[in-house]
Design a protein that fits this description.
It is a single chain. By secondary structure, this protein is an alpha/beta fold. It is built from 13 helices and eight strands. It folds into two domains: 237 residues, Aldolase class I (TIM Barrel, Alpha-Beta Barrel); 88 residues, Chorismate Mutase Domain, subunit A. Helices cover 49% and strands 10% of the residues. The chain has an eight-stranded parallel beta barrel with strand order 1-2-3-4-5-6-7-8, surrounded by five helices. β1, α1 and β2 form a beta-alpha-beta unit. α1 runs parallel beside α2, α3 packs parallel to α5 and α12 packs antiparallel against α13. The protein is elongated, with a radius of gyration of 23 Å. The structure holds phosphoenolpyruvate (PEP) and manganese (II) ion.
Length: 353
């Protein structure tokens, strides 16, 4: 894919490229106050949502066009570049009219090719950097498809944002990182900058530092982090926003390792192992939740916890399956025995309550 490497002039090329700002534009004071604090800490690109796609009606859907002059003011007062999310042709026209410097396409929009095409058509012939968030569902083709639609409209300053993927069972993360997906995107389109969004992946402040480090270890180019002058009072995504001060602290703590082929390869593999282990924990906890539901059912129907037939069936079935997948069947039996033991323990707690 033919791309221009500089997204915005004057922004340091060294990793990480940092974009920061509140989830949403709320008031003129809130954006200006936050922007000044970020700018004084060296942040060059300010993000903030004017139009907010919410999963359910009734949430804060953004201040809309009245907020655009406030971003213009941020630009004038701080000299920062300003970025906002667009989802329709109207958003594009309004944002361009207001002199917004960079646009991003949100995860819910990327998942809809009609919407992406509408945005692409509205951008035809416009030279503005656009970042494309991954779709909410883990579909690499859909993500690349969105990138191609914008590229086909003639835009060359493109980047992608990895913000994780929805899952039914939310445990550690708000959106599962599934690192192998952006890694595969890097392999398919090596020259597109990848920016990690630890705020939307983690969904909570405490996870931002470690996810950011992980992204840097995977050689991602940048970070987009939600930062608010008063995070607890934020009108959207309060639990994942941090003050500019904390943001500075997190950025300064990051270890940026220089690329050396062999160790980097090992890093990538280790990160993949970490991801597998995280997935194992999530799946196990999902399994235990279901086991507890079964426990409740058994209690209501006066059934015994242990049903030997079912247990033997599981051990045999997965022993064979494990072997077919290149693992020792004894090893698989041991794993399932341990899992079964914990399920029985959890059901016993319920039955004896
Ligand atoms: C956002 O950036 O505030 C946002 C709405 O993110 P996403 O599209 O990743 O959910
Ligand atoms: Mn947000």
């Amino acid at each position: 894919m033919e791309l221009e490497s500089i997204l915005l002039p004057g922004v340091d090329a060294k990793r990480p490229l940092v974009i920061a700002g509140p989830c949403s534009v709320e008031t003129e004071d809130q954006v200006m106050n936050t922007a000044k604090q970020l700018s004084s800490r060296g942040i060059k690109i300010f993000r903030s949502g004017i139009w907010k796609p919410r999963t359910k009606p009734g949430g804060f859907e953004g201040v809309g066009t009245i907020g655009l002059p406030w971003l213009k003011e941020v630009k004038k007062e701080t000299g920062m570049y300003v970025a906002t999310e667009v989802a329709t042709a109207l958003h594009v026209y309004e944002a361009l009219k207001a002199g917004i410097d960079m646009l991003w396409i949100g995860a819910r929009t990327t998942a809809n090719p009609f919407a992406v095409q509408e945005v692409a058509d509205a951008l035809k012939g416009v030279d503005i950097p656009v970042l494309i968030k991954n779709p909410v569902n883990p579909d690499l083709e859909l993500w690349i498809g969105a990138l191609e639609r914008i590229h086909n409209a003639g835009l060359k300053k493109l980047g992608v944002i990895h913000r994780g993927f929805s899952s039914y069972d939310k445990k550690i993360y708000r959106n599962l990182p599934q690192w192998h997906i952006p890694i595969e995107l890097r392999r398919r389109i090596p020259n597109v900058p990848i920016i990690c969004d630890p705020s939307h992946i983690g969904g909570k402040r405490e996870l931002i530092a470690s996810i950011s480090q992980q992204a840097m270890d995977l050689n991602f180019d940048g970070l987009i982090i939600e930062s608010h002058c008063n995070p607890d009072a934020a009108w959207s995504d309060a639990s994942q926003q941090i003050t500019p001060e904390v943001l500075e602290y997190i950025i300064n703590l990051l270890v940026i390792r220089n690329e050396t082929q062999t160790t980097e390869d090992l890093q990538t593999l280790r990160k993949q192992i970490d991801e597998c282990d995280n997935n194992l924990i999530e799946e196990l906890s999902k399994r235990m939740r279901i086991a507890r539901e079964i426990g409740t059912y058994k209690k209501e129907h006066n059934m015994p916890i242990l049903q030997t037939g079912r247990y033997t069936e599981i051990l045999d079935k997965y022993g064979v399956l494990g072997e077919q997948c290149g693992m020792d069947s004894e090893f698989i039996k041991k794993v399932f025995e341990a899992i079964h033991e914990e399920s029985v323990r959890q059901q016993a707690v319920i039955i004896n309550k």
